[in-house]
Amino acid sequence: MYRRARSLVMFWRGSSLVARNYLAGVLGKPVHDWTISVEELNLLRRLDHWRTAAQVATDAPEWTPTSIAAALGVFHERGLLLTPAEAAVEDGLDQHWTGWSPEAPVFLFGTQDADYPVGEDHGRVSASVVGQSGPPPPIVKHYPGPYLTLPDTPPLTAAIGAVLHQRRTHRTFTPEAIPFTDFAAVINTTFAATHFVSTPDYGTLMLRTSPCGGARCELEAYVGVHDVEGVACGLYHYNPRYRRLAFVAEYTREVATHLAYDQDMAGGGAFVVYLTANMRRSSYKYRHPRQLRVVFLNAGHLGQTFALAATAAGLGPWQSAAVRDSQVQTLLGLDPIGEPLIYMMGAGQPATPLDGVPAEYPLVEPPDL
Fold first, then answer.
1. What does DSSP say about strands 234-239 and 271-277: parallel, antiparallel, or unpaired?
2. Residues 6+ apart with CB under 8 A from 36
């Protein structure tokens, strides 16, 4: 007895319809793309609930009982049909991933257990293959001037242990503008290049204070300023090579709040940072879709560095994934395919103490578990 897998995705590859069970690996089956004919698709359509081969044969006259039994066996091997035991595993999506299917599990399970050949660098392609793809994309994005260069401020000297315990997400801020030097220290510490290195296969690469897979540094920082001393309100692109801002678009507190789904902290703080990903810069070296996980992880690394740098500078940081992606990309004039929005963060003069104690809720004793 079989039922069609609910964890199937189908797409066109050229003129062929392809089916993939993104949970195949969890079910102990090969993760593979299978070309489906119209006849096979019609057969699968008849298995949206539990049926035996004999039952399917009653309303599939174009198939013989023998061919149906053989086809169902092949479909099962490929993960297109499931047994009751396998379906019980698949049903865990409804229990543990409520409201997330199919987008989230397609991404996570579809990139599990990537094939990393021994001796190769985590899914990268060889230098010879990369060379056939043309010259590497620029490691730094440039906008035309005029520019506002951020000063090389002294390194933040706050003790790391204290900063870690003082870090907290702040949602309310005073109307006081933040000093230009504090702003520059946070932006430069988080996003500026610390070194450049020469590699034999991929040319010059940039390093930052945060880890980044393959030193691709695919994440671009756009800074929305509305309360920083010496910086006019506006939306800027930050150049990590020259540590300078280039004006991109008009920007106000009301716009900042709207783009953050009306979260007051975005418009109430001093500035907001939008991280976008130059996908070509990352995919030029890494061709496996698992690399998208690395892009997200890289954004998280930068987000934590930003929060710690802001705390060390005496500012209140915040971060959020609740951002109107398409509207930000339109405002920035970006290609939503080549440079999508990934993350948002910001900071301001905190209205609550920088002591690490949550401001919204009272502290309680640890629960007995």
1. unpaired
2. 10, 17, 18, 19, 44
Residue with tokens 């174009």: 62
Cα distance between residue 298 and residue 348, in whole Å: 23
Q: Which two tokens stand for residue 204?
A: 């010059």
User: CA–CA separation, 296 vs 55, rounded Å?
Assistant: 47
Q: What is the number of helices (H) and of strands (E) in the chain?
A: 14, 14
| Pair 291, 280: CB distance under 8 Å | no
Nearest-5° Cα angle at 288, 282 to 290: 85
15-56 pLDDT, tens per residue?
A: 999 999 999 999 988 888 999 999 999 999 999 999 999 999
**Which secondary structure element, helix H or strand E, spans residue 104, and what is its range?**
helix 103-110
At residue 229, what is the residue type? Answer: E
pLDDT at position 76, please? 96
- Tokens (6 digits) for 106: 């397609």
Of 165, 213, 163, nearest to 189 by C-alpha is 163
pLDDT recorded at residue 117? 62
Per residue in 193-252, pLDDT tens? 999 999 988 889 999 999 999 999 999 999 999 999 999 999 999 999 999 999 999 999
